[in-house]
UniProtKB/TrEMBL annotation:
Superkingdom of origin organism: Bacteria
InterPro entries assigned: Aldolase_TIM, Ribul_P_3_epim, Ribul_P_3_epim-like, RibuloseP-bd_barrel
Task performed by this protein: Catalyzes the reversible epimerization of D-ribulose 5-phosphate to D-xylulose 5-phosphate.
Native source species: Kangiella taiwanensis
The protein's Enzyme Commission number: 5.1.3.1
Protein name: Ribulose-phosphate 3-epimerase
Amino acid sequence: MQNIVIAPSILSADFARLGEEVENVLKAGSDWVHFDVMDNHYVPNLTIGPMVCQALRDYGIEAPIDVHLMVEPVDRIIPDFAKAGATYISFHPEASKHVDRTIGLIKEHGCKAGVVLNPATPVSVLEYIIDKVDLVLLMSVNPGFGGQSFIPSTLRKCQQVRQLIDETGRDIRLEIDGGVKIDNIEEIAACGVDTFVAGSAIFNTDDYQATVTQMKANAEK
Ligand code: DX5
Ligand code: ZN
C-alpha cells in the first residue's frame, strides 16, 4: 500500500481567492490539488479549464495537480491541460470513443493517466487498460457537484479494484472522490484506497490544517 495522499477538491474553494485558497490548503498539509473540470454536457455543471490550471502554476503552486475531466469529448482538451501544468489527467471512459487511445495521448503529453469509474460503472471496464494507467479514480457520488453523500456500494468496488491493482504489481494509485469526510475516511482506507479527494469536508471548515491532519490520521489508522 502506498503513502496516503489528501487531494482537496477546489470545487468547494472560494474562487474569488483561488490562489490563496490553494496555497493555504497545501500549507495545511494536503498533498495534491484536485481540479474538477465540468462542461455542462457530460455533467450538468460548468467549471474551469486549462487557463485556471496555468494561473495556479503561474501563482507558484508546485504541488501535483490532479485534473479530473468530466467533459465529452475528452481528447482535444488533453494537450492544453498538459501545457498548463497538469500532473495527472483522469477521464471517464464513457466520454471517450477510444479509451486506449486517450490513455496513450495523456502519456504522450508527459502526464500520468487516470480512469474514472462512476458509481454504476462496473470494474470490468479496467480489464484491458489496468496495465497502462497510473491511477484509478472511483466516484463515490454521481459526478457534477460537491457536497453529496458517499454511496456505500463504492466500498466493495474499492476492495475489488485494490485486488486488481495488487495483481498487476504496478505502482497505480487508487483514488476516491465524493462524500469523503473525517468520519468515513478510515473505513474507506481499510478498503484499499490510498488517495482521497475531499472538497466540502475541507473547504467548509475554518481550520484547514486541523481537518487535513485529522483526515490523514484517520486514513492511516
Ligand atoms: C464531483 C467532483 C468532486 C467533488 C467532491 O463531481 O468530482 O471532486 O468536488 O466534493 P465533496 O468532497 O464535497 O463530495
Ligand atoms: Zn473530482
